[in-house]
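It is worth pausing here to work through a concrete case rather than discussing structure prediction in the abstract. The textbook approach is simple: state the sequence, then state the predicted structure, then interpret. We follow exactly that order.
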Amino acid sequence: MNEDIKNTILERIESYDTIIVSRHIRPDGDAIGSTKGLVKILRDTYPEKKIYLVNEDFSEDLAFLGGEDTVSDETFAGALQIVIDTGTRARISNRRFALAKELIKIDHHIEADPYGDINWVEDERSSACEMIADFYRTFRDRLKISPEAATDIYAGMVTDSSRFRHAEVTGETMRLAGMLLDCGVDIETLFANLYMEDFERLKLKSFVYEHIRITQNGVAYIYMDEAVQSEFGLSLEAASDVVSDLKSIRGSLLWIAFIDNKAQNSIRVRLRSRFLGINDLAIKYHGGGHNMAAGATVYSREEMQALIEDADRLLGEYKQTHEGWL
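Step two, the predicted structure:
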């Protein structure tokens, strides 16, 4: 079935003169890498077409991967809109997407909102970039890929899988990653951009380690209020990334970062886990995502505490019914 969908997507791409590509709000490496990588493949393959990358926000941390395009409303008329790595239409970082003639959704999140005219969703994939790599491989006799495009896609695969350490990583993931490496990815430069840290980031880690809280059953969590974000000069995305600093505590199989978002009168939530599924918990609190990596939103400190208590019960039940967890 997926082969049929991929063939249909390529047919649509070849039939349009104007193509606009977008991703989700508050973009991560996968959202940026998949969209930029696909745009570069299409521009190299179809130089006669007008290919645009259009989004309403960006990530300063991933600015080294390049910029965005600015287009008028008129550009959308008669255009093909492709949205990647975005589970619901509410999270599309391009509110004008509905102005396009046709919409294609390419995503690896659990299907909650089949908003596209064409929906290619594989929630078992480790990243949307893995799907774009697969799309290129399927039509490599018809599509062109540059080292720059391969680097964008590889960057998304690396970051969304936490350097190929998540349960969704398969032999297929690694074969596609190897194919991209053969296309000329500069691993040393890419990893330097991704993982070298400023001294200020190390001071932030120190703060996080001092302020982690752990529940009775082992849920590790931290609350990043507005004052902390201001003290360290953090964007909302950078503050959210501290969730990764909680993942190596022995006995803690579920970790959460709460990020104050005064502009929207809410608290952003990032949930991560090892072994146990958390998507249902995220859905209960206005979110969703993957089985072991999801996002949510709460609207008060009381609701935040309720989520922590639910997470603690979930982890406690898991530990009671499973042997051999670390």
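Step three, interpretation. The CA atoms of residues 205 and 245 lie 7 Å apart. The longest helix spans residues 301-321.
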